[in-house]
Specification:
single chain; disordered C terminus; 224 residues; 13 helices; mainly alpha
Length: 224
């Protein structure tokens, strides 16, 4: 952990809100907070050290390392966890050859003897299969991004579990949810209280009553 720049209150509040949503959704799926907010899993997904993940999830200040130190931490984690198909770590030479850099540049970046540029970060993120910004994002933002990915996965799982069996679209025909862009609203409804979810369903019923042809097209066995 570092005593560098403190975590901003706004970023900390956003992280707390996201983690609470993930925990609430996990509970709906019968999973405990410790399972859906597993520090080791989140560390691997975000590149943030495990002790920092634990501190941030508890609402504690963890400090933010400077850009170069953060880059080194995450590059080391990727090197340890992104393995060759044989189970070994990639050599500096292999990383250089496959990322379009030189061995000397890669060695200097690993050693911390060279400050990373945007180009360095981009080529290494592509090599290790990580999204843009992975090597540079502040710890609290990187952790929040990892949590959002988990939230989307849980929302999808919950929506599939709760979806009525009568709603699939006919083959080749997008469902009413897809055609009207309300699939995201339906997923968010998973976190609504029962009263709010009921109002959403009533609205959908009213919409289908006013647009019967679309309702028929979206039903199983409906007319093309």
């Amino acid at each position: 952990m570092t005593d560098a720049a403190p975590t901003s209150p706004a970023a900390a509040a956003q992280l707390a809100a996201t983690s609470d949503r993930v925990a609430a959704l996990g509970a709906k799926l019968g999973r405990g907070r410790e399972e859906v907010l597993d520090p080791l899993r989140l560390s691997l997904a975000s590149g943030v050290p495990v002790d920092v993940v634990r501190a941030l999830l508890r609402g504690r200040q963890a400090g933010e390392p400077d850009l170069q130190e953060r880059f080194k931490q995450r590059l080391r984690l990727l090197h340890e966890t992104y393995l060759h198909e044989t189970g070994r770590k990639y050599s500096h030479g292999e990383i250089a050859a496959r990322s379009g850099s030189s061995r000397q540049q890669i060695q200097a970046l690993f050693a911390g003897d060279r400050r990373p540029t945007m180009q360095h970060c981009s080529m290494l993120e592509k090599f290790f299969g990580r999204p843009a910004g992975f090597l540079q994002a502040e710890d609290v933002d990187a952790l929040n991004t990892a949590l959002v990915v988990i939230e989307k996965s849980l929302l999808q799982e919950y929506s599939e579990r709760e979806a009525p069996e009568s709603t699939p679209a006919a083959p080749g025909m997008p469902s009413i949810y897809a055609r009207h862009g309300v699939d995201g609203i339906a997923l968010r409804a998973a976190l609504m209280p029962d009263e709010g979810r009921q109002r959403l369903l009533e609205w959908m019923d009213d919409y289908l009553a006013e647009n019967p042809m679309e309702g028929e097209a979206g039903a199983v066995g409906g007319s093309p």
